Amino acid sequence: MQPVKYARAATLDEAVAMLSENGRDAYVLAGGTDLIVTARERTHNVDLFVDVKHIPEVMSISFDDAGLTIGAAVPCYKLYNDERIVADYPAIVDSASLIGGTAIQGRASFGGNLCNSGPAADSIPTQIVLQGSALIAGPNGRREVAVEDFCTGPGSNVLERGELLVAIRFPAPQPNSGAAFERFIPRNEMDIAVVNAACSLQIDGGTVSNARISIGAVAATPLYVPAAGDALDGNPLSDETIAAAAAAAREAATPIDDMRGSIKQRKHLVAVLTERVIRTAAGRV
Hints:
Shape: globular
CATH architecture of the largest domain: 2-Layer Sandwich
Radius of gyration: 19 Å
Number of helices: 11
Number of strands: 14
Number of domains: 3
Strand content: 25-35%
């Protein structure tokens, strides 16, 4: 483990100042489930941990007429134990209950998962289809970025020097809507998706009025696939339209061969999981 300094921030302004003053080797410490490992293995040069767990904005869950706001450091177990999230945002529960085991879920957060920006992250496709927005604070003030635009490459994102993710905002679910997330892993001992997928649907009068589909672990970043949603929008939900959406998702995937799966397998799984999440989301409408 490399020597690392520790500082606790009580406000967003304090956290921004600490990150700005200490340069690129200062990192936000929330759950730390990835950061502490990378510091120990020296895959990142970490000089300072800025602990943000005492900042109210990053540790709260709140609802209003506009929807749901989840603080960036709220641990996963609080999400799937929140009755209103369970009722109104079941896809969030799908993801939160799959990120690591029980111990990890006591610390890992949707915000940390997003900032880690892994292509196979199990919360990002869900955040994308639910139209999540990342609320960011930094030395130049506040800004908001759609989750689908947040990740820029494996392990990289739009956060600039001195910035931190404060919360993720989701709009209120629309009438006659539903959403779902699934993943495929090679075995229980390797808790990293070979492919994952999420879908949100709104169905009015038997016709799909709004569909969003996202896939992960098949490109440099989690992908929002508008073409897959377009295959459903304006059409009745049928075996044919579901197959067309699955084919569009498969076409958008650009996976690689690695120890977890081959290109051929991943392309096949994209179609399978896309079809499954569409049907599950429809069942939740």
